[in-house]
Amino acid sequence: MSTSSRARANPVVLVLLAVVSVQFGGALAATLLPAVGVVGSVALRLTLATALLWVFVRPRLRGRSAADWGTVGLFAAALTCMNLAFYGSLARLPIGVAVTIEFLGPLALAAALSRRARDGVAVLAALVGVVLISESLTTPWADLDLVGILLAALAGALWAAYIVLSGRTGARFEGLDGIAICMALGAVVTLPLGLLTAGSALWEPEALARGLGIALLSSAIPYSLELLALRHLAAGTFGVLLSLEPAAAALAGLLILGQVLGADQLVGMGLVVLASIAVLGRPRSAEVSAARDAPG
């Protein structure tokens, strides 16, 4: 293989590693939930991720306008609520199911912004996929975890809001200043609540170790890999790779949590992945493609 071929392949490998890292971080989070709960898990993730990020990023705080703070405040609210909703769904659903349902958020946003009829058809196909993966056709309604399904759907809606607010924050803040401030605001809000709900369990060595692992796998590692990759990767290619998130989540659920999905669920996941590739795989604005810090 030539040097130029390897250079083209490397960004793809970096994004694939980032996708896998995020989903294994989500699977690790599922193992933390029984110990410290949803709020405690989110608090640990945001606090430790903020500490890691602020070692390298010293965001400028002075001289910001009220509009700047309003924008980053909304960004922080979307990020924090997105993670709370997603971790709440992880406590009730297999991670592959939760991520697939959640993925409807950015998919629907991209289709709405494209205004293409075929993207609308792709979203309908993805909805069919979600019906299959939720097992709502084969499971009595009384046995369905509707709360878990609704929490995953809410996380998806908040993920779409996060993408839009990410673009607006990026227009007002330099480099990684916006996300650094955003995560710090989320940590300031969730840490007291985490201490209140989880108590001393929040600073047990095992909880801290798992929280650090989540912060690394879900934030620090994928941020770094994608920053390197996106210098040489087209937005459409990035969108295709991002569409593999549900499949990576199913793999993480199988290897880390022993969660096995049925044949219908795998078909449903396949529909969502294919719909996402169709919609996200074309060149588009950075706002639609910048979907990182997905919950997980």
Automatic annotation (TrEMBL):
Keyword Transmembrane helix in record: yes
Transmembrane spans: 39-57, 69-87, 93-113, 120-138, 144-164, 176-195, 207-225, 237-257, 263-281
Membrane topology: Multi-pass membrane protein
UniProt xrefs under SUPFAM superfamilies: Multidrug resistance efflux transporter EmrE
One Pfam family here: EamA
Subcellular location: Cell membrane
Keywords: Cell membrane, Membrane, Transmembrane, Transmembrane helix
InterPro entries reported for this sequence: Diverse_Substrate_Transporter, EamA_dom, EmrE-like
Stretches assigned to the EamA domain: 147-279
GO cellular component: plasma membrane
Major place of residence: membrane
Family: Belongs to the EamA transporter family.
Protein name as catalogued: Putative integral membrane protein
